[in-house]
Design brief:
alpha/beta; 7-stranded parallel beta sheet; 6-stranded parallel beta sheet; 16% strand; globular
Length: 364
């Protein structure tokens, strides 16, 4: 299989793209992969380090307000389309995949114009600007949430889940004692992403001592940039502070309750690992998509939500205590997560891709 993959800007787009690449390599080790990304975002370093052939294009995202900067954005887009046509023509892929981010715009457009088969994936419950634009240029569209199916043409859309989920399922669970945690006490994991959130972290640090007499333990993951500020503060014995855990799903497998942002990749892991979660969605993201992601589960009684503006000591601790102590509610959340989780997402996507290449209607 010869495949071009494009995704960029954030880990929420890039890691699903990598998961798709890994599945293709697993199924067809002789496959040739080319990744098209930006010249100045995180994928430009991450992808080559993984040994994946990389082509960079210079492009920037459209500004959401009227500004002369958008003239430059449009110029770069048109120039990128021309370069993408050249790259795609020379590589001659069987299929071209876009996993989100503005970099995918010229890639999928050029692929379609060259008569190549195209697939895009939407990780969030609310459709991103790039994928809205690319809907007419995509032959098939994978979505992570059933609620997003109606956002795309019925003859194109497929419920696949988020491909990051398979890695989480396969990951070995953590030995709690390695972190100085008790084998028998419930674990509450508080994490706001790899960088953390200063606003949320400041609030949580202010009441860590209030967990002192609880019959559960708290693992507070601050994010690397925030850790230096709090690494030496005194906390109760049942509270642990760490900067970041790179194999987070391994710890999630022994977690009883999570307090988290609502990014797409994290949510895919929460779903397949059945981890009851209190979401504190970031209010600073495009289209407020984290709130909408979280509400997708909340509305199906598969999670709880506490908006950042309502985050206080009393609200959060009460929500944690109530959730852990109400066995019926807790069980219902876990059961509903189990119903919604898609554990073979990367496999589903691979089967769709293979079916597209073979023109095999049984895959759709």
């Amino acid at each position: 299989m010869r495949v071009i993959v494009s995704a960029g800007g954030t880990g929420g787009h890039i890691y699903p793209a990598i998961a798709i690449i890994n599945k293709i390599k697993e199924e067809e080790p002789k496959s040739e992969i080319l990744y098209i990304g930006t010249s100045d975002r995180m994928e430009k370093d991450l992808i080559p380090e993984l040994g994946i052939k990389y082509e960079a294009i210079k492009i920037s995202g459209l500004k959401r307000k009227l500004t002369l900067e958008n003239i430059k954005v449009l110029y770069r887009f048109l120039k990128a389309r021309k370069k993408c046509k050249k790259i795609i023509s020379e590589f001659d892929p069987d299929i071209v995949i876009g996993a989100g981010g503005y970099v995918t715009g010229p890639v999928i457009w050029a692929a379609k114009k060259l008569g190549k088969k195209t697939f895009i994936h939407e990780q969030n419950s609310v459709v991103g600007l790039s994928n809205k634009y690319l809907t007419k240029y995509a032959d098939k569209i994978g979505v992570s949430f059933a609620s997003t199916l109606d956002a795309f043409p019925k003859d194109k859309v497929v419920l696949t889940g988020n491909p990051c989920s398979e890695k989480a399922v396969k990951m070995k669970k953590t030995n709690k004692e390695d972190y100085g945690l008790s084998k028998n006490k419930p674990l509450v994991l508080i994490v706001m992403g790899s960088l953390g959130s200063k606003t949320v972290n400041d609030k949580i640090v202010s009441f860590l001592n209030d967990f002192k007499n609880k019959d559960y333990e708290v693992m507070f993951v601050t994010g690397n940039s925030y850790y230096e500020k709090v690494k030496d503060i005194k906390v109760p014995k049942n509270v642990k502070i760490v900067p970041f855990i790179y194999e987070m799903p391994s710890l999630m497998k022994v977690t009883d309750l999570m307090v988290s942002r609502a990014g797409a990749s994290t949510m895919s892991e929460i779903l397949v690992l059945n981890v009851p979660t209190i979401f504190i969605p970031s209010p600073y993201v495009t289209n407020n998509h984290q709130y909408k992601n979280a509400m997708d589960l909340v509305n199906q009684n598969a999670a709880l939500i506490l908006e950042e503006k309502d985050l206080t000591k009393d609200n959060l601790i009460k929500m944690i205590d109530d959730t852990l102590n109400d066995k019926n509610t807790y069980k219902n959340i876990k059961d509903n997560l189990k119903e919604l989780g898609i554990k073979d997402s990367a496999e589903r996507i691979y089967e769709v891709l293979k079916g597209m290449i073979m023109d095999d209607k049984k895959f759709f």
